[in-house]
């Protein structure tokens, strides 16, 4: 068995295709480091610009509301009634935009000259701004789409408020740039956005032809003349696919962690980070009413949970790829179906409401690791790990059964 | 060659992935519709309210007028605006949409006249000539010369004049065709098509072509069937061109078929009545190389809203400056607009097909070919995406994938340069492919 695994691993490393993909993966990691370094460099300028836009917007709306208020005072009863239809809570709406204007203005000046007032001041202003935005969203003075477009969805605002309050209360040193690439922060950023999705896609391509390659070339006949049971061959292939996919990602993560640590230091593993409450985290069913509720843990705990989920997902996706390739015997179909499944998770995250249970019951829906860990979509961590675990076992058994009973004499159809 | 195209197309259409992709597109469409329905908002006010409010703002200024004759004319004019508002409100109550569209058109014409008068005599003459027919039909016999806002018209700027004129044209179209006003979240058979080519297809078109075409040549190269095929009296160049034509037709088949079931399902209910719904269109899209600034994307980021199909009520504030862009926009029937969108989409597909066929011809290994195409597409899109909202023009083929927004003039690129760039880029890719493939050792 160990000889078989060694052979598979040797074949894997020697394949030109795999060498190219490994080079692509290494380039992807370098690209991520370069991208975040660029984001770090531009963070102050970009944030100042976006705060300026928010100030202009709030200022414009507040001005038009003040004109509206003035004409409301002069209007007769019939006119008043009509005017109040479009802005039924005009005074509250005015106060909301006024507060938004003031806090955005304070942040513009903070980013212009942030050494003067310090990070604690920024966090205090941010808390005020975010709390006000939450009130605005609840009262429908500002739309959810608007907040989402600015990267300030209500659940994300709630998360920021909880984290900022904790940092101020415990007098913890506040970092001035979320993209500062320390070793720990690099690992944290790798779990954000679409990066896990791209990584998963690239690693899956590494293992896609572990069965089909031989079938398409016809060399499987020679391989099966060796004195090994088909079951053992299957298991050795699965183990080598698992080792290579998990191994490659782990090695690349470790190397990148070392590089960023040498560049900017390791970072503090005990630094606070938000995570979903236990009720959401360890649930076996989807819970829509716990969305946005977070608690504070160390970033180390966050990373352990995040990477546990990521590696379970990686193994499940690799297993799914093996399964499709065993039943279809076609590289094209396998690539098409796996890409389709990964795209579907993108579709769900883009178009589905965060409360929909479908997020929790689609195995690749868990690829939005940041959103899962921060309770921003209705998909509990434990359910995700369990669901993917079951998929791995089931697909393993079905694939093993299919492979052992496959008619290999007829060649490729 | 025709036979080869037909046989290849039949073979590709029979593939499982074709039907899986069609199903995925239908599923995405259903999710988008569901999402739109969730976002449907209650309309608190009608244009009638707006006209009455705008007429009400001027009461104090009218009272200050000393000249009795001027006072009479201006008072009469604002009373007309107030009356148009009341008529629009009444029409809504009576559910008479034709009358609502008439009153709203007239209200906008009055506001546009106010803007034109403020802008000077020449603008006013131009307005009179442009809107003569419209005025006669919607004013219920009001004499154009008896209406004047000049002594008190100071609210509206040049940009707003064009805005009101465009609004008037929009509602006049609805009035003439007996259609009902729509909003961004409305869904019916024809507006679904608009949303489909605006929100869904641009996001996935590159990946759709990638999945369909990454193995177009290397598959036949790997399994040896290319040798058999090239023993036929068919040049290698014709073989490549066949692949590209089939790629375009196959992608169009998947794209169009992905929308058909939903269009038919809606159409049974609404009889496709909105087929000639007026849609905002950039006037010189096919004759000019320059476009207008992408105010829709800008406003979406800044304000998060865009209330009418392809059209923004705040468009007279492009980038927050009172520049005025609505003079470059006009309205066009939806079916015509969708036809032009399909034309633009076809050249976009041509580019992505040429790219994938080239990579498929260069790399024998399907997985490496897929990875290379995917990386080029993703990197291209990531690098080009900022062009959609930047101050410069959006001239990258990777970011001109939204035909609806290009025709609407809100994608930092007009239709003519988009077509030229796609054709040029495709020509280069196809030429490289032909030169390479001619000498390839098969």
TrEMBL record, chain A:
The chain crosses the membrane at residues 20-38, 194-213, 234-262, 333-352, 383-403. It comes from the Bacteria. One of its GO terms (cellular component) is plasma membrane. The keyword Transmembrane helix applies. GO terms for molecular function: ABC-type transporter activity. Keywords: Membrane, Transmembrane, Transmembrane helix. This is ABC transporter permease. It comes from Anaeromicropila herbilytica.
UniProtKB/TrEMBL annotation, chain B:
Keywords: Membrane, Transmembrane, Transmembrane helix. GO terms for molecular function: ABC-type transporter activity. It comes from the Bacteria. The chain crosses the membrane at residues 16-33, 200-218, 239-268, 334-355, 367-389, 409-437. The keyword Membrane applies. GO terms for cellular component: plasma membrane. This is ABC transporter permease. It comes from Anaeromicropila herbilytica. The lineage of its organism: Bacteria, Bacillati, Bacillota, Clostridia, Lachnospirales.
